[in-house]
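User: Just a sanity check before I run the rest of the batch. Below are the structure tokens for the first item. I only need the designed sequence back.
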């Protein structure tokens, strides 16, 4: 590399380093991910890796923890909770998730509370007014009569 010393307007020496001919703007490969399995994935490969639940002591609220595979495009998630009688108990929609791991609280609003609740989670892409492209569907359940953290179930 060629080095050239010059003076700026304050009479302080400045070192200018010139790259060799042909070395300007050479393509660089910078890998920000150590694990190749954790590289951001295209929309067709985005999955809910884990779905966990924390039932609050009164049994009418539940914190839902999500863990997604890394993604290139921001996915949306829809969560539908039904009680043991099949009645809708809660619904949650996440529009264009920014993080791969996060949690949100859902209030259970069914008129006849039950112990067991079933959860259907959909990961999808789509703009308003367009058909959804569902890329992953996951079904889990939790027991609202047991306050505290419920075991997280991994996707197999």
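Assistant: Here's the designed sequence for the first item:
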């Amino acid at each position: 590399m060629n080095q050239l010393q010059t003076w700026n307007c304050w009479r302080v020496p400045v070192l200018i380093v010139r790259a060799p001919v042909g070395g300007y703007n050479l393509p660089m490969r910078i890998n920000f991910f150590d694990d190749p399995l954790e590289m951001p994935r295209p929309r067709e490969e985005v999955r809910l890796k884990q779905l966990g639940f924390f039932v609050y002591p009164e049994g009418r609220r539940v914190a839902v923890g999500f863990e997604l595979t890394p993604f290139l495009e921001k996915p949306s998630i829809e969560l539908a909770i039904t009680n043991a009688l099949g009645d809708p108990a809660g619904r949650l929609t996440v529009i264009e998730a920014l993080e791969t791991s996060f949690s949100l609280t859902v209030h259970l609003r069914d008129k006849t509370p039950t112990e067991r609740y079933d959860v259907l989670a959909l990961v999808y892409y789509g703009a308003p007014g367009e058909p959804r492209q569902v890329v992953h569907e996951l079904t889990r359940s939790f027991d609202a009569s047991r306050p505290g953290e419920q075991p997280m179930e991994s996707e197999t």
